[in-house]
Amino acid sequence: MTNNFRSNITPTWCPGCQNYLVYAALQKNFADLKINVDNLIMNYDIGCAGNMADFFKTYGAHTLHGRSIAMAMGEKIVNPNLTVCVIGGDGGIYGEGLNHLVAAARANINIKVFVSNNFLYSLTTGQTSPTTPKGAHTKSTPTGNINEPIHPVELLKTVNQEIFVESVDVKDIPKLNNTIKRALEFSGFALVDITQECVAFGKQLK
Amino acid sequence: MANKVYTFKIAGPAGLGIKSIGQLFSKILIAHGFNLADYSEYPSLVRGGHNTYQISFSLDKVFAPHYQINAFFAINPGHWQQHQSEFNSKTLIFSDEENPESGRMEKGIFYNLPLKTLANEIGSPLVVNTISLGVAVYLLGFDLNLTKEIVCGFYQKFSDLNSRAIQAGYDYAQTNFPKCKLDLKTKINPKTDQQLYEGNESYGWGFLAGGGNFYAAYPMTPATGALHFLAAKQEAFPNIKVIHAEDEVGVANMGAGAAFAGARAAVGTSGGGFALMNEAVSYCGVAEIGLVYYLVSRPGPATGLPTWTAQGDLMHAIYSGHGEFPKVVMAPGDIDESFEMGYQSLNLAAKLQTPIIVVSDKFLGESSASTNNLSKIKVKIETGDIETKPSQNYARYKFTPNGISPLTIPGTPNGQFLANSYEHDELGFSTEDAQVSQKMFDKRMAKNKLAIKLAPKANLFGNNTAKTLIISWGSTKGPILEALKDLPNKDDFAFLQIKTLWPINPDIKNIINGFSNTVVIENNGTGQLVTLLKSQFDFNPTKIHLRNDGRPFFPEEIIKLLK
Questions:
Q1: Nearest to B355, CA basis, from B397, B382, B327
Q2: Looking at the structure, do residues B208 and B125 belong to the same domain, yes or no?
Q3: Could you report the predicted ipTM of this complex, rounded to two decimals?
Q4: Which of B246, B261, B417 is nearest residue A79 as measured by Cβ atoms?
Q5: pLDDT tens digits, residue range B229-260?
Q6: For A64-112, what is each residue's pLDDT tens digit?
Q7: Which of A13, A19, A186, B562 has its Cβ near the most Cβ atoms within 10 Å?
Q8: Do B40 and B76 lie in a common domain?
Q9: Which residues contact A198 (CB under 8 A, 6 or more apart)?
Q10: CATH code of the domain in which B326 resides
């Protein structure tokens, strides 16, 4: 099968990583919605999810950590005809880049943000993230996380009720596909919070 | 015989229109044929405090404001007191108070100008500034009708009130200060094409002339003028987008996204904001995104002196961004060069595909001067090496001898690539290969050579057989040139203004080595240009003159230093 969107590079994620499911669901939806590969920009944050950058062959920017949404906003403002997506994790989107996320939601700018939320920093080998449950023992919180976690859907709904923001379990593939589709079709800012478990470091949270 | 330079100054609390009356007076001066250089001081507050506006004007070109004042207007009592070092025995001081008791006033001739009473007669306490202007217009023997025309055009719906205020000031001066009248030659030309611009505005006009179509900023004094100017221009220039983003990190990355998507883009800030932008500077370096950073300095460290001036960010600009990558740092020296660098920086960003930093400062960015109508100047827009019909095997980061690889703009068929913050191969995909990493680094650094060729060359003023070479950069250009006008031994001096501070053109070494005496003048505390030149070649300046108290150099001071 030919695929307009995929690069020739074999993904480097861990065997069993749930980002493969996100990667597949995005390709399926881009194809189903007949998105023109020439007019698609993918912005990738830094992290495991952001490593998807090398596995797509579209216009793309593998940005700085936390800055993928700001970069995407610049692109969309300059050329509203482009389909502008953001791929990131809970660390980059809800932590380092939270100010840009809130700004994009306030502006209701028509960009699509897909967050692989695994409740951890994984590429840096498993530290606590903004969505890590309180009390969790991670490498950076060996005596337990003292912070309340962020709830991204509730948080963003208080920022702007006009935007699209939903959470979906990555293992519910029909729902994942349907949510991504509706996000891509939505005429405004859309964020899909895709919850998953890290195969390498997730057991810390059990 | 050179025409004399006069300096008028007005002072009072914030909120009483000190700056607007200064700018209005400047427009009246321009219509009477004068060239001028303005300077204003204000504290970081909105009401109260002590604001000043001064204008040095002459029928000849004026390169910088003078320190010594000919006529001073204090619109509230006592606002003259802290300026006594700027007075001489002939300075006329007008203030709304009875003559101060002896001892309080050291120099100058004091006149009681009952501003409050006159304003009350007119019916608004807010016109004290305009009444003062009426006095100034009388002293200079200006055309009252022409003056009123300009005042009415400026104040629009308050034109009647201000017209009466001008008349009241004029009449009061005619009755009470006839001896103060200055015998001044004018060259009335109401249709003159000369205009008044702040440095930030002239940068903005250059940006527009150069096809700039995306500008983002977060408010930060003294760079905010460019944001205000360009934001207000969006109606007249519908293809430009001006964004006030959430913070400087957002600004810089939004700018990178805009440039990546094909815009001719710039972002503006001062030193603190630029510190926040540094990571994005580095990203644009590695991903080869041509973005312009308009850095208008103020004294640091940290919040520093927000509304004052310094040239303290030269090294900050040159070493901005982690890692090693090519960039251009250039500094305009006056209003006209602010305009030039507004478009030159966009052209360089397009051609070099790397960060271009334009370093101005409060003294240049927020001071006004008269020059040609910048809105009418057409410039050459250079778009660089853009690939519009890429082949199937197009490689965005193709290795090339001069380091420039043809660039596609998103939307172009077959042009897909990854603008990668990681080290990458020719397609933009991440690599950790030793050879490719080295080769890609070398390819990028090759652009420095081209940058030296394309970036603005240094200006050498004066005779290259002079005894001493003055070396400086940026906004000190004005005070130095103004000092050289009046310096008795001016033929002993030449002046090298370095416009591109990075990369350093090797010609600069040759010029400097042609002089046995060198004097460096910088508006900072450590002599950053000296450090920079020392890093490039064997350089031992004879003298270094620094000023780092938030104030610019004045010509009188430079004359003293050089005598």
A1: B327
A2: no
A3: 0.97
A4: B261
A5: 999 999 999 999 999 999 999 999 999 999 99
A6: 999 999 999 999 999 999 999 999 999 999 999 999 999 999 999 999 9
A7: A19
A8: yes
A9: A17, A48, A118, A119, A120, A122, A126
A10: 3.40.50.970
